[in-house]
Design brief:
It is a single chain. By secondary structure, this protein is an all-alpha fold. The chain has two domains: 118 residues, no CATH class; 144 residues, no CATH class. 45% of the residues lie in helices and 0% in strands. The chain is built from twelve helices and no strands. Helix 6 packs antiparallel against helix 7. The longest helix has 16 residues. The radius of gyration is 18 Å and the shape is globular.
């Protein structure tokens, strides 16, 4: 399928940053794959896919090889050369590889099992690193890594067939009620969350509704429906208007702040299609 000229321009801009972090493919020489936001290895792979680059493109295959080079036999991904391996890091690696059509890879099957074996008692996933000290709110899981893990699982046979994932969905639906910052990294639902951010990078209304719409456990739930109605109210003539974008991406055509985005609208229409299932 032909790629729109403006999308090709955006691809060229993203590719122009591929050596920014000292090595190829937006990585650092020691394989820090999440460094350099918003032009990190993981983020740029997702942007290129969003803009229409095929997972079969040689560049995407090379990116996948780089990510898999950080995979450990226990299913985790070590995306930083030193320090611990945190669930959020494995979550983003698995998510990106699933978007790149590797959900059936034998290594990711180990990663999926790792997630199933390490779910926290509230249904989400969390790490034991406390940037904000210890408080009652840090006893919760981290919502955004949990959402990323559900995003990865939606490409697998576990989708709508695994009680563990229903528990994770319930955790995120309950956060819609709690609203306050929770988890060791203090993810909250407030003013910034309610702004439509695109492309998907942070914990926000649009990505929250999008990912949960794939889960039967969420679709008929009152809390999901409330979040969906908030998102629907933001659409103008059925199109999604980007309310928030990281400044370094502001000049890209596909995500201009204050303007309708055809690709964001495509994701919105996926939500509506999922509701018909």
């Amino acid at each position: 399928m032909a790629i729109d000229k403006q999308n090709l321009e955006d691809m060229d801009t993203i590719l122009s940053h591929r050596y920014d972090n000292g090595a190829d493919l937006w990585a650092t020489p020691d394989k820090r794959l999440l460094k350099g936001a918003p032009f990190s290895t993981f983020e740029c792979a997702l942007y290129l896919l969003e803009l229409g680059m095929s997972s079969d493109d040689p560049l995407m295959k090379t990116i996948a090889d780089l990510i898999f080079s950080t995979w450990k036999e226990d299913g985790r991904f070590k995306i930083y050369p030193t320090g611990g391996i945190y669930p959020c890091q494995t979550a983003i690696a698995a998510k990106v590889l699933c978007h790149m059509e590797y959900a059936n890879d034998s290594r990711l099957k180990v990663t999926f099992q790792h997630f199933l074996d390490t779910q926290y008692n509230d249904g989400g996933w969390r790490c034991n690193k406390f940037f904000f000290g210890h408080g009652p709110e840090t006893e919760y899981s981290n919502p955004h890594p949990t959402l990323n893990i559900l995003d990865a699982f939606r490409f697998s046979d576990y989708l709508n067939n695994e009680p563990v994932l229903d528990h994770a969905v319930e955790f995120l639906l309950e956060h819609w009620v709690i609203r306050k910052p929770i988890g060791p990294c203090h993810y909250g639902i407030g003013t910034l969350f309610m702004q439509v951010e695109y492309p998907f990078r942070n914990y926000n209304l649009f990505e929250y509704v999008y990912v949960l719409s794939f889960y039967q456990r969420a679709r008929n739930d009152r809390r999901f429906q409330e979040a969906l109605e908030v998102l629907k109210a933001k659409a103008v003539d059925g199109k999604i208007i980007v309310e928030r974008v990281v400044p370094k991406l502001a000049k890209l055509n596909f995500c201009k702040k204050g303007e309708p985005s055809a690709l964001a609208t495509r994701r919105y229409n996926e939500i509506l299609d999922n509701l018909k299932m």
